[in-house]
Amino acid sequence: MEYYIIIPAHNEAEFLAGTLDSVVAQSLPPKKVIVVNDHSTDDTEGIIDGYVKKHPFIQKRNRHSSEQHMPGSKVIQTFNYGLELLDDAYDFLVKLDADIILPPDYFKHIARIFQENPQVGIAGGFAYEKDTKGEWKRNHPMNNDHVRGAFKSYSKSCFKAIGGLKAAMGWDTVDELLALFHGFAIYTDETLRVKHLRPIGAAYNKRAKFLQGEAMYALRYGLGITIIASLKMALKSKKLPAFIDNLRGYLSARKNKKPYIVSEEEGRFIRKHRWQGIRKKLF
């Protein structure tokens, strides 16, 4: 199978070489890699240039946006900027962060998943991060059937069906919900251990703390699901103030009538799916 990788990169000089080394070392190499240098002020571009010279399948594209690192919209806008350089001659497409170390057979296994399971639309492994003792520990704040946004692979048919990725906070939840809406499955493989070099949200702007609640509004969750999901998130992360931040974000978005990112029909499906998941865990 053939695949493309898009890597959005903003001030990733500390980690990018490790990520690209792990991509170059894949037993099933990519057809093309687009690294989008998004307004970096460190040596990110120089690192990309070095790999472009050595590896013909790696390509750079510069983008000039803000220097703030905001989750959601910025990274997907950067991803979409790289997507403009690609054609449709691929079997699956990968959105990869610039602070990820992949095992050498990672995409060989991903390709096999898509080959053997045609109904799978999104596939991936699990993230491991270093704890305070320097040991790599699994860090997965979402359900086990969720693929982290830092390393998501999409079959071409699924990517087209969901209309690509939404440039909004919560994009890596809405993509999976829309995949389910269109009849695709989500596949996670616990044997695929991915090293995530930067803790979740470590570089985010402080204004980002309300965006999760805004995303729940944009996904048409409704207040009940938002309260339950926010409480679960706060308890799992052991950050109870996150519960208040989420509710403030949701209520602010509702008050200001911010636009939804899914249709009414998709919203009904999402609420039904979420309530079913809640009931399963309760009963």
UniProtKB/TrEMBL annotation:
Domain Glycosyltransferase 2-like, chain residue ranges per copy: 5-145
Pfam family, one: Glycos_transf_2
InterPro entries hit by this protein: Glyco_trans_2-like, Glycosyltransf_2, Nucleotide-diphossugar_trans
Name of the protein described by the UniProt record: Glycosyltransferase family A protein
Taxonomic source organism: Lentiprolixibacter aurantiacus
